[in-house]
Amino acid sequence: MLATRVFSLVGKRAISTSVCVRAHGSVVKSEDYALPSYVDRRDYPLPDVAHVRHLSASQKALKEKEKASWSSLSMDEKVELYRIQFKESFAEMNRGSNEWKTVVGTAMFFIGFTAILIILEKRYVTMGCSLDLVVHSL
């Protein structure tokens, strides 16, 4: 009875928001996962939302300029418009990563470390008593 009462009080105290107020804590705003999120994938080329969600003043002006003729846009402006919508191009997504170098390097390090331990063990660790000596001494 006493243990359940203690756990009940502790649970109420832990859930209480007045503890946060007294401790000068704040409530962290969590991201709404019900909204679509941006992902760059080769098999899904058109994400549901743009890469840049909050546009700066220059980006807003460029978006307004986008509504006019595209022939009036320079190549840099077209690239900037593309970067607002997408984080990576297909060429950047298809580019290989250098992670294999890290994996091979780590494997070689551990193989070398193991080889050094084996060499040191063969050189400095002596064999214990053999079974023949134990049997003859009895």
Write the layout of secondary structure elements.
Blueprint: H1 2-15, H2 18-22, H3 57-66, H4 75-85, H5 90-94, H6 99-124, H7 131-137
Keywords: Acetylation, Membrane, Mitochondrion, Mitochondrion inner membrane, Transmembrane, Transmembrane helix
Main location: mitochondrion
Pathway: Energy metabolism; oxidative phosphorylation
Protein described:
This is Cytochrome c oxidase subunit 4. It comes from Cebus imitator (Panamanian white-faced capuchin). It is found in: Mitochondrion inner membrane. Keywords: Acetylation, Membrane, Mitochondrion, Mitochondrion inner membrane, Transmembrane, Transmembrane helix. Belongs to the cytochrome c oxidase IV family. By secondary structure, the chain is mostly helical. The protein has a domain at 36-94: Cytochrome C Oxidase, Chain D (Orthogonal Bundle). Helix content is 57%, strand content 0%. It has 7 helices and no strands. It has helices at 2-15, 18-22, 57-66, 75-85, 90-94, 99-124, 131-137. It is elongated and about 100 Å long. The chain starts with a helix and ends with a helix. The mean pLDDT is 82.
